[in-house]
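residues and backbone:
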Amino acid sequence: MKTYVLIPGAWMGGWVWEPVVRPLRDRGHDVHIVTLSGLGGHEDDRSRIDFDTHVDDVLSVLAEHDLRDVILVGHGTSGVVAGVAADRAPDRVAHVVYVEAFLPHDGSSTLDAFAAPLRADELRSIRDNHGQWPVPDEAAVSEGQGLSPEQARWLVERFVDHPGRPLTDPVRLSRSLEDQRATYVVCRLEHFDERLADDVERMRSAPGWTFRYLDTGLWPMVSAPGDLVALLEEVPDNDDHPPPHVARPRCG
């Protein structure tokens, strides 16, 4: 049995992992879901929610259930949360899975990964939306992502605006990201030429990192849950395993 802690990305609560949770539990695994503060509904005041709040949400689940040898899974923007939580709890987290995710970098925020013009646009939208990152529309969610219209609608109807500060606060790491044991999951429909962000590409040379590929879009837990479950089951959950090799993309 393996222990998974699943963290949803922007605009989503733990509900987004529903298509993955039951198959993992049916296979005998222990699965915990984190709904980050401000994403469980339409709270009135999210101004006090910052990046550390979201990391503490994850650490609280690890401590409350006294979890060890955890496979910590972060999706999208929550890759940064997962990476920092693993950095702060190395005695509990054995492996981090970054599902088409942003990576944490000491002294930088999540939105610092965006190109300058786009970052400026997103910061402006957060400011104009009372400190919250507004949800995308259904067309933006569904276009080219391998989702059916029903799946895209299911997502968008449950999205809530994301607290802004967790995306704009600089993060802190005590150890090099290259020292983590991690799997990076590339969702191919999100990459026209399979080129990844430079900081992600650099992780190919890290000895404890491996790259895996799914032929789907940005929300694989919805569009390809079976494939994602199979991939997660292959992730090692303790340090007795040798460092994984770096997988290269398949042809086609």
The radius of gyration is 17 Å.
